[in-house]
Design goal:
Length: about 280
């Protein structure tokens, strides 16, 4: 079989990119990923999700490399059930959530620690877990403060999150806007982009053959990292404005489009250019 995608790595965000608005994987995207991998390509995910949450989809799609979780805080090898890389929120930054709870009581606050989810402050958006079948602890016991935290997530109305983002930016370290209603506190110097750099280094991937795709502000760094970084047309305005390549919306099989684009623009064009060069420079004896 012709391994036309050999050496290429496609890294995709999940929600709002790979998955449609109902959180489902389309058959066209699934078949395109299967085709890409069968033809030699590497495919993996970069998401804000947990091990369990992202892992549910790996029954539907194959990944050939470890998955980036928690917006870059953890890299996990599902095949070998092994953490490849992990960082934690600095101890002196944990108190941010108490400040937020006291000053913005309408916002929900979630703490992610040791693959458990703790609800420090409830709102209508923190109730989403009850519909998804996840084990969630609606409390933040004292002993959890002494554990290592992977991230904290602030949820609320878009205008509230806009205001809080502006207040926290450049004051409390690494704050990531992962959606209209989501603001995440993650370890300093952590992002999806930096995690991809680690993955590329570990697996000796050629940066010139890296393709990334996302939809939201937390994807901007990884999109800019790649020579061929895409934002779906349904993505956040800030992300679209900072992106050179635009793919169809997450409702219109963005991953299938990108894989076709790679084949038509990076593979076939390269072969055609090479053949044209050889024809122009061929000498006959």
């Amino acid at each position: 079989m012709d391994k036309i995608f050999y050496g290429y790595l496609l890294v995709s965000d999940m929600d709002g990119t790979l998955l449609n608005d109902s959180g489902k994987l389309s058959d066209k995207n699934r078949k395109a990923i299967e085709y890409f991998i069968n033809k030699g390509g590497n495919f993996t995910l970069a998401t804000g999700r947990t091990i369990a949450s992202a892992g549910r989809f790996l029954e539907e799609i194959e990944v050939t490399l470890p998955v980036i979780l928690y917006n870059g805080t953890k890299i996990y090898d599902y095949k070998n059930e092994k953490v490849i890389y992990e960082e934690f929120i600095e101890e002196d930054r944990k108190d941010i959530i108490t400040l937020i709870k006291n000053n913005y009581p309408t916002l929900g606050i979630e703490v992610y620690s040791e693959e458990s989810i703790y609800i420090y402050s409830s709102c209508k958006y923190t109730d989403r877990f009850s519909k998804l079948g996840y084990d969630v602890i609606y409390d933040l016991p004292k002993e959890v403060w002494d554990k290592k935290w992977t991230k904290a997530l602030i949820v609320g109305e878009e205008n509230e999150i806009d205001f809080l983002e502006e207040k926290l930016d450049n004051i409390y370290g690494n704050i990531i806007r992962s959606g209209a209603k989501y603001l995440e506190i993650v370890p300093n110097n952590i992002s999806k982009g930096k995690a991809i750099e680690k993955l590329v280094d570990i697996y000796n991937i050629n940066f010139k053959k890296l393709i990334t795709v996302g939809d939201n502000m937390n994807d901007i760094e990884m999109i800019k990292l790649a020579d061929y970084g895409f934002c779906v047309e349904s993505g956040a305005e800030r992300t679209i404005k900072s992106t050179k390549f635009i793919a169809p919306s997450n409702e219109n099989n963005a991953i299938e489009y990108i894989i076709n684009w790679i084949e038509n623009n990076l593979i076939r064009n390269k072969k055609e250019n090479l053949n044209s060069f050889l024809e122009r420079n061929m000498t006959y004896v």
